[in-house]
Amino acid sequence: MWFKKNDIDIKQIERVEQKLNIQLPSFFVDFYIKKEKLIRKFKKLSNDEDYITLTTDFNWMIEFNRDFHKLPRTEGLCKNKICIGTDGCGNDSFISLDGNDFRVFKIDHEIANDLIDKESGDFMWEDDRMGTYDSLEHYLEEEIKSLKEFRN
């Protein structure tokens, strides 16, 4: 697993940008640099694959976005969004490629179809049923809290 290494290979994040022809928001890259301790805490606690919840497997990120979600898109479903992780059960988490939107959106696969706006063909990102976190740090802290509660 990645956390056995000394640090995150930022060149792999650059590879994601090249392969998907995108510019990841600086807050996303900075999070991996500045919050590595929090990421390690989560990964050790979860003891799951490197793509779960918040990916540390950037090859997975490329393949899952490009091949499964057909992202990035400039229109339609998940317009201007990129998947940063999944729970392995169809609930995927996204960030906006707009560097001014720091939120993380977690879409519950059981209600995903109900969250699609028929006119735009995209999710209703502001819907109260959408799992929304104000930052990557808040998102990961909530996931850690959930894991701890699940184990108790």
CATH architectural label: 3-Layer(aba) Sandwich
Total number of β-strand segments? 4
β-strand percent reads 5-15%
Please identify the oligomeric state: single chain
Mean pLDDT: 89
Question: Distance between termini?
Answer: 25 Å
Query: Which class of secondary structure composition applies to the elements?
Result: alpha+beta
Total discrete domains? 1
What is the share of helical residues?
25-40%
**Which descriptor suits the 3D outline?**
globular
Q: Low-confidence parts, pLDDT < 50 over ≥5 residues?
A: none
User: What's the CATH topology name?
Assistant: SMI1/KNR4-like
How is the biggest beta sheet arranged?
4 strands, antiparallel
**What is the string of SSEs from the N terminus onward?**
HHHHEEEEH
Protein name: SMI1/KNR4 family protein
InterPro entries: Knr4/Smi1-like_dom, Knr4/Smi1-like_sf
Domain Knr4/Smi1-like: 9-107
Descriptive notes:
The chain has 152 residues and is an alpha+beta fold. The protein has one domain (9-151): 3-Layer(aba) Sandwich (SMI1/KNR4-like). It is built from 5 helices and 4 strands, in the order H-H-H-H-E-E-E-E-H. It has helices at 10-20, 26-34, 36-46, 58-68, 136-151, and strands spanning 81-86, 92-96, 104-107, 131-133. Helix 1 packs parallel to helix 4 and helix 3 packs parallel to helix 5. The model has no long low-confidence stretch (mean pLDDT 89).
